[in-house]
Amino acid sequence: xxxxxxxxxxxxxxxxxxxxxxxxxxxxxxxxxxxxxxxxxxxxxxxxxxxxxxxxxxxxxxxxxxxxxxxxxxxxxxxxxxxxxxxxxxxxxxxxxxxxxxxxxxxxxxxxxxxxxxxxxxxxxxxxxxxxxxxxxxxxxxxxxxxxxxxxxxxxxxxxxxxxxxxxxxxxxxxxxxxxxxxxxxxxxxxxxxxxxxxxxxxxxxxxxxxxxxxxxxxxxxxxxxxxxxxxxxxxxxxxxxxxxxxxxxxxxxxxxxxxxxxxxxxxxxxxxxxxxxxxxxxxxxxxxxxxxxxxxxxxxxxxxxxxxxxxxxxxxxxxxxxxxxxxxxxxxxxxxxxxxxxxxxxxxxxxxxxxxxx
Length: 359
Ligand code: KG4
Ligand code: ZN
Description:
Elements: E1 6-11, E2 16-23, E3 27-35, H1 37-41, H2 48-70, E4 79-85, H3 89-106, E5 110-114, H4 115-126, E6 134-139, E7 144-151, E8 154-160, H5 166-176, H6 183-191, H7 216-226, H8 244-256, H9 261-286, E9 291-295, H10 302-315, E10 318-320, H11 332-343
Helix pairs in contact: 2-3, 4-11, 5-6, 5-7, 5-9, 6-9, 9-10
Bound molecules: 5'-O-[(R)-(carboxyoxy)(hydroxy)phosphoryl]adenosine and zinc ion.
């Protein structure tokens, strides 16, 4: 088996159309990412039908550009890798049918890749010396999971969100604040002008010792804060039916709550980051792992990166951060991990189906 593996990767699971050429799982020769964010912005989120149509229009040009930039010919390829799950079914099908067609025409093996596996692997693109085992925090728009990674192909879930994903919470709170989609980068930007200690939003708890996450309560707390409904009363009763003197007190308390959007954004961001960092540290400690990695769109958040760095330094753990361009959706991570599947003889038939869910 030759060890020069040139792979075309295709990623169309959500709202980024991406094609990349990666050599031997690590050397990224090209990574073209065409974002549809502008297209979906007016709707405040991804519109599946619009996403599929845009993928059909932009995927072939993205693939052509990936070949050009990498100075590679289709005949030079060893394999074609594609995200086949999870994601928007129509969007996945655009990428999968294109990959199958190329696989058939070029007579090259097809490697189906789980999108989350791609995110976990993205660290390898930035760190060729990534140590195993490591604890991985995956924080994207659809998932928030903790994994114990044994090698590039073997990982075990230690915890997951029970409701909203971290990115989803960023997007929903951004929308409450009237910020554009996708909300994560907008909240991060606005937070720079705010004070994260102004409002103490709840840190989602999921029971003692649990490595699961929960962000829906936090999201609701932000909503109530915006409505001015979380002025705490010293007697703990609901604000309804209060005595006239107490009403005045509650009104004053409400006024003292910051309604500055930048403070709200910064305080919300801090509440999410604190929980993500704390659970990741807890996982590393519990399984006696000394290396930590992160991935997914939210992993490009500067406050999360800074605070997980500080926590790892304090705990004497090694931290490996992927470059920001490999945090959000991209095809390089898909072509990268495919190398390990191919070496293990794990290639797919052309009957491979798109699967919208994880399992
Ligand atoms: O991994 P990704 O590109 O797509 C999914 O697989 O979901 O993640 C997208 C998510 C969105 O929710 C977006 O708001 C969030 O990642 N995100 C961020 C930042 N950049 C992207 N969240 C917080 N801070 C950021 N800088
Ligand atoms: Zn993703």
